[in-house]
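Budget justification aside, the reviewers requested a transparent look at the raw inputs and outputs of the sequence design task funded under Objective 1. We therefore reproduce one unedited record. The lines immediately below are the structure tokens for a 475-residue chain.
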């Protein structure tokens, strides 16, 4: 029985009464439906949406340390004045760029997390090479031909492409499939700009390309074309149907990024079961006249993501969707002579959705501890962030994570976690099933402290939510 069946069966069995009416009240309270829905979601139902800020976003002027004199001394012309930085104050020491008012509202509601100082050892400052590093998860001196997401999807679908899943594994909104989605045997996703356009293009001929039996470079290329052809034909009607079934519940800004996110929301709401979506926003290479250029970009980013999150929430899809921003590098600490910044190193990234822990992870930038060029050392390796999402969001076992991202064995507490097995295996049989729930319900009704699953010193509805997150776990 999965978590969704568990919730259905628990109400049918009258367990709501054993929980002192919590279930009944929860389903009558819209604010509680989201957390309940999240507990019923299996890893296969969860969605990761990655927004790439192409060009290298300036993290210092995005999450601003307005109490730091070093910040203002390093950027006498382009630093965001403290008064403006405090418009979207997050803590006593930093605030978001004034254009990020939607982000601040998400922080206030606990649906956004900033991870400060994300980078990697010996950072590369070339756009092309740094982008490849972030998309493949390689070391700075290592070249990989497969992407980190491609390796993950291959690990959970080892028979791909010989056996195609019933739904596309990933969707890249763009003309060419991202390197991050490449596996050993080709791409593990579909690249498209518009579902109807994709359907029309694929079905112009609607014929399968015959495979090749020739073990030559040309034969291998033909086999790759055949794979793309088969996937496209199989998935084109599903993608179009999902786009037609899905409806946006809010109005999006008329920008490229916002409309791409609106399309993703329709596909999710329309029933497409793809796990991963990718979009890109270009223009962050701000070597000159950065102030106005970055403000326009951040305003677009803010309004697009804020609309997307509100849309998912209204459509009942928010709790199964997690978003993340990435950029190939931050900018240099010091401004240049053209009212801009040059290629730098570590910078913050953002996670968004109801399942994030919220707040800021990591210390503020340390201007007194920099590299030989005066730029920041990283606090967190970007692959540690990736690994943490694989573990907590997709519930990938640690040994599998190490095969996808070698050397990553430590994880960050970025998301709401399921409890340890021992905390919810009340029957002691090594698995959390409906018999454990019945035990939990009986103890819960008696306010037994042994059923304080979340460890807050009392038994309440939050313990039920925590228990449900752990439902289905086993040794």
């Amino acid at each position: 029985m999965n978590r969704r069946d568990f919730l259905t069966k628990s109400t049918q069995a009258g367990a709501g009464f054993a929980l002192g009416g919590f279930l009944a009240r929860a389903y009558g309270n819209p604010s509680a439906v989201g957390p309940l829905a999240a507990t019923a979601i299996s890893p296969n139902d969860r969605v990761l949406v990655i927004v790439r800020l192409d060009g290298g976003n300036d993290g210092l002027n995005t999450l601003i340390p307005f109490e730091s004199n070093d910040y203002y001394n390093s950027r006498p012309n382009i630093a965001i004045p403290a008064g403006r930085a405090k418009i979207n104050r997050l803590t006593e020491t930093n605030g978001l760029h004034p254009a990020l008012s939607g982000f601040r509202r998400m922080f206030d509601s606990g649906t956004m997390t900033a991870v400060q100082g994300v980078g990697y050892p010996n950072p590369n400052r070339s756009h092309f090479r740094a982008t490849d590093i972030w998309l493949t998860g390689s070391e700075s001196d290592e070249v990989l031909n497969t992407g980190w997401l491609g390796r993950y999807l291959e690990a959970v679908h080892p028979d791909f492409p010989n056996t195609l899943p019933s739904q596309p594994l990933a969707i890249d909104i763009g003309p060419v499939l991202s390197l991050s989605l490449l596996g050993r045997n080709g791409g593990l996703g579909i690249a498209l700009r518009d579902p109807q356009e994709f359907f029309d293009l694929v079905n112009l001929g609607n014929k399968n390309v015959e495979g090749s039996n020739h073990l030559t470079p040309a034969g291998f290329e033909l086999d790759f074309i055949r794979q793309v052809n088969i996937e496209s034909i199989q998935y084109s009607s599903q993608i179009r149907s999902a786009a037609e079934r899905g409806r946006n519940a809010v109005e999006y800004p008329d920008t490229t990024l916002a409309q791409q996110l609106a399309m993703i929301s329709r596909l999710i709401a329309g029933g497409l079961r793809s796990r991963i979506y990718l979009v890109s926003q270009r223009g962050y290479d701000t070597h000159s006249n950065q102030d106005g250029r970055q403000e326009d970009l951040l305003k677009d980013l803010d309004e697009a993501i804020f609309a997307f999150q509100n849309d998912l929430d209204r459509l009942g899809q928010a709790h199964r969707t997690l978003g993340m921003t990435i950029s190939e590098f931050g900018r240099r600490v010091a401004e240049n002579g053209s009212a801009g910044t040059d290629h730098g190193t570590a910078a913050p990234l953002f996670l968004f959705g109801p399942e994030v822990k919220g707040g800021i992870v990591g210390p503020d930038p340390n201007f007194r501890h920099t590299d030989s060029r005066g730029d920041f050392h990283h606090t967190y390796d970007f692959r540690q962030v990736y690994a943490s999402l694989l573990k907590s969001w997709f519930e990938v076992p640690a040994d599998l994570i190490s095969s996808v991202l070698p050397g990553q064995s430590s994880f960050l507490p970025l998301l709401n976690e399921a409890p340890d097995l021992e905390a919810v295996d009340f029957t002691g049989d090594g698995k959390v099933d409906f018999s454990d729930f019945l035990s939990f319900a009986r103890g819960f009704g008696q306010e037994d402290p042994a059923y304080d699953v979340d460890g807050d010193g009392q038994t309440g509805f939050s313990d039920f939510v925590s228990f449900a997150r752990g439902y289905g776990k086993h040794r």
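The longest helix spans residues 217-245. The CA atoms of residues 5 and 464 lie 15 Å apart. Computational costs for records of this kind are itemized in the attached budget.
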